[in-house]
Structures are given as C-alpha cells and as structure tokens.
Amino acid sequence: MLAFLLALIFIVVIIGCIVSYSLAKTKRFLYPLMEALGIEKRWLFLSYRIPFIRNGEAFILDLSPQRDPWKRVSFDDLSKVFSTIRFKLSIACRYPFHFSIEKGVGSSKEYLSLDGGREGLYFKGEHKELLLRAFSENRALKPLIEKIIKKESEYIFLEKGRIHVAIECEIDKDLERIRNLPENLIQLRNILLEYVYPVEIEGSSSSSRVLLFSIYAFPIILSVTQLAVAIYINYLARNDFPVLNHFVLILATFALYGIPVAIYLVVTQRIVFNFPEAKRKLFVCFTMASIWFLTSFPLVMAINGYFDKSKPFWIEGLVENKNAKKRSWSIGISAVVQDGRKLGTWQFLGFPGISLSVTEDEYTKITPRVTLARLLVKEGTLKIPWIYGYVLYYDGKRKNLAYDYHFIGYKKYRQGNLNDAIVFYTEGINATGGDPYLYYNRGVAYRKKNMLKEAEADFLKTIERKPDMFEAYANLAFLMSGKDQGHSILDLWNRFVEAAPNDPRGYFERAEIFNRMGSKDKAMEDYKRACNLGLKKACRN
Q1: Angle ∠(459,465,470) on CA atoms, nearest 5
Q2: How many CA atoms lie within 13 A of 57 on its CB side?
Q3: Is cis: bond before 298, omega within 30 of 0?
Q4: How many CB atoms lie within 10 A of CB 7?
Q5: Which whole-number Å values give the CA distances from 431 to 13, 314, 330, in the listed order?
Q6: b vs e for 367-384, b when ≥16 Cβ sit within 10 Å of the residue's Cβ?
Q7: 42: left (phi over 0), alpha (psi -120 to 50) or beta
Q8: CA angle 242-246-250, nearest 5°?
Q9: pLDDT the model gives residue 199
C-alpha cells in the first residue's frame, strides 16, 4: 500500500511539473506572440492551429512542431532553446500559384515551370533567390522578403490556395517583426498574385468542402452500417458465428473488401491532392479506410454463418492450454482430426491453434492435455469454416454421438436459442437413428415455441422408444389436458404404470385423474400405492 501511495505521489508530481512547464511556456512565449499578432489570449488550446482575423484578412497561426526545415540546436546554442519560438503563419489566396522562370541566356535559355499546387513549393536558400529572379522586375519584392525571413532556417512555402511562412525568432528581440508579419504577408500575396493565371481554386468552394467531408464520412457511414447489420443478424440468430480459423477469415475479408477499399483510396487520392495539406488529408482517408476494413470482420462472420445451408461435420482435438481474461475465457485446441485423420490442409492455414471461447464454469473444469473437445463445424456461405457447437469431455473419455448432439442442443436451449436447439436435436436424431432423449428434448423445445402438434408427435415417439420415461408422459398429459381429454390422459398413465410399476409418480398422477373424474376409491388406492413406494406428497391424501 505504501509503495502504491509513493508511486501515486510521484505520478502526481510529474504531471504537475509538466503542467507547470506548459503554463510557464505559454506565458513566456505564446502570450507575447499572440499579443503581437493581435490574437486574444486563451487558457485552453484545443489545437495547434489558431485562426484569427487581422486587417480584414483571415490568417492561421500554426504552432505544431516542424520536422523540416528547423535546424538542430548545437550545444553552444543550447541557451536559445529557452528564448526561441518557432511557428508558421499562413494566408489564403484566391488563385493557385503557377508560373514559369527563364533559366540561361541565348540559345541555352529554358523555362522552369513552378507549381504551388499539389505538393507545394518551398522557397528557402537557393530557392529564395530563384523566387527573387522570377520577379526581378518588381523592386519591392526583395526588401519585403528580407523583412519576412531573416534566417536560413526560415522559409516561404507556396501551396495551392495558401502562402505559408515559417519563422524562428527570439521572442524578446523580434516582436516588431512579428507585429508587421501579417501586413508583410498580405503584400507578398498581392505581389505574387499579379503573376499567376486567374483560375479559381477548386478546393476553395463550398461544394468542394462538401466533397472533402463526404469522402471522410463515406467509410465511417459504411462502418457504422455494417456493424449495425452484423449486430442485428447476430441478434436474430442468437449466435455470433465464431470462425474456426481467423487466417481464413482475414483472407476472405481481404478478397471481398480489398478492391473496394483500393478504389476508395485511388479516388480520394485524386480528390484530396486538389486541397491544401494533401498528404495529411490522404492519411486521414487511409485511416478511415482502415476502420472500414476492420469493422467488416463482424459482418463477414455474420453473413458467412447466417446464410449457411451446408451440412455440419465433427472434428475433435485435445485441449492444449486455457487462458482467462476479464469476463472472457478461452482454450487452445490442437491435434485436430476428422474421422481419425489430421486435417493437413487446415493445419497449413493455421492449425493447430483453434481458439475456442467457453463459459466460466466450463473453464474451471478443463484440464489441459486431458480434456477432449469435439467441435461441430459448418463450411460457411463464404467458405469460412465456423463452429456450430462443441462438446467438452473433461476426463478425455468420449461418449456416444447422441450425447454430443444432446449436449450442444441443450446448451442452445438454455441460451434461449430454440431454433438452433431444434436443429441440433434433429441432426442428432438423423445421425443416431432416433435417440429417445433427443426426441424428448426436441419436443420440449417445440412446446416452448408453442408448436404443440410437433411437440406431441415427439413425445409420442419418445414413449415408443422409452416407455418408462416419466417426463415424456407428463408433457404429453399437459398437452392433452388443454383438449379436455380426460379418458385419453387416464389411458396414458395406465400405459406408464404398466411400463414402470415401481415408479410412484405414475400412481400419483393416475390418482389425480381419478379424483377429477369422481372415482374417489380408485384415487385413494393409487395414493396409497404411491405412498408405499416412497412418494411423500401422496401420503397427505
């Protein structure tokens, strides 16, 4: 406990130091900068990009760290770290930058086309001189640029629709240059716009902004939609259709979504390069496409299982390990075999290594290298094998096939998934030739679904195969009581008493029927027999 408190105090101190440093830096650097540019002070910065208006023009102050072209500070200049601030200031333009510059003289004269469109154009060092030569007839340009940038690390960047200047200055010495920076940037823009073609910028119109937000929203809308559809399908089926092999799931999803995602990225690449900061926007689109692809897995699993009409088959394997997380329990199964043969092709695609989610109660009973797992598997609509159901033999001793179907069907019944329970019981009946317990369980599921004719037929088949099964008689008597068939119910319990003369429950139920029919003497006789056979509630009559 003491160690935890010390660690907590240490973390609080570290966070306090960081916050204090951030506030000190804000007060030391950002407030003077914002005051010089005419920006209102604020306590909270939600973004590194701060828009503001100066002289009727819209500017953006960018305080984000720049990887290039800021030079590294040497050890001798370490003191400048605490007195220097780096930032970018940009202003919008009505037209894109596109112009040519003459190089060479005479016959060797050639033209260099400069485009500040898609990738943008830096003017720094030699490029700065190139800019001055391009507009050499304008004598006001050179002193203007010298007012704007004064260090090798500073630069001018022309981008389609914007002019950026990157500044590195000492806040105590360069306040005057900072105050004049917006006006100088307006003058620079006006000079450059005299030399460009008067073509409107595509990215500046409201319709283009709608297009940009549309390509952002498209994958998000699809992601939400396909998640909602997957959840709805799982709800209808009461099943999440767990796949047998995640590697096959990834391959199938890539085959289905690879081309649409690629088309989306190609189209967005062509669109976003018409906007400022194209690479950043393309990265956002790539992130959205990745979310779209990742959220497609639940939908693929749901479609693969929900529309699957294939015939299930059994595979089995030994439980190798088990893992527990928060409210999640899973086991690893290896040595998977079908009909005594290892599944070689499936092993190449990821076997051994089936991961199976189990309940907490099952997890506690499992012993690795001892427990045997039998999985009922279906091929899948999209050819992705998925786990239809499973049976665990904790002692490693396999029982008969009827037990497997009974176990899985009863688990589905307990989960409220009556349709799947009926399917499992039917599969078991077909596979075993008509096990009475499977008929009985299917009859109970039919009764719960209010399919009374089917339930009655199954209970009768149960009695035919196991005449001494009390539960089948009780359910059949309940169904017949709704039709007011007193004599038929009496015949039913006479049949049970003949099949199980030592079971007191039959005498008690027959006594209840005699009582309703008014045959008190026969009823008392059956109550006594039931009491003598050990049924205590019969002794009270």
Answers
A1: 55
A2: 22
A3: no
A4: 10
A5: 69, 12, 29
A6: eeeebbbbbbbbbbbbeb
A7: beta
A8: 120
A9: 38
Tell me the backbone φ, ψ of residue 159, rounded to 5 degrees.
Answer: -125, 155
Q: Which residues pair with 372 in a beta bridge?
A: 318, 393
- Residues 23 and 18: their CA atoms lie apart, in Å, by 9
Pair 92, 161: CB distance under 8 Å: yes
- Token pair belonging to 371: 């427990």
9: exposed, middle or buried (Cβ count in 10 Å: 0-12, 13-18, 19+): exposed
Q: Which residue has the tokens 């595979």?
A: 315
**Tokens 């009863």, residue?**
410
The residue with tokens 């049976």 is 391
Put simply, whether the predicted model's pTM sits higher than 0.85 gets the answer: no
Structure tokens given for 532? 């003598």
Task: Say what the pLDDT of residue 136 is.
Answer: 59
Q: Which of 347, 366, 417, 368 is nearest to 389 (CA)?
A: 417
More confident residue, 325 or 337: 325
- Strand, helix or coil at 385? coil
| Token digits of residue 351 | 């076997």
Mean pLDDT along residues 497-518: 86
Q: Please report, as a single letter, which amino acid is at residue 222.
A: L
Alpha carbons 440 and 411: distance in angstroms, whole number: 15
Cβ pair 202, 274 in contact under 8 A = yes
Sheet containing 162-170, strands listed edge to edge, beginning at the edge strand earlier in sequence: 49-54, 57-62, 84-92, 162-170, 155-159, 121-123
Question: 435-490, pLDDT tens digit by residue?
Answer: 888 899 899 999 898 898 899 899 999 998 888 899 888 888 888 876 655 568 88
HEC string of 402-450?
A: HHHHHHHHHHHHHCCCHHHHHHHHHHHHHHHCCCHHHHHHHHHHHHHCC
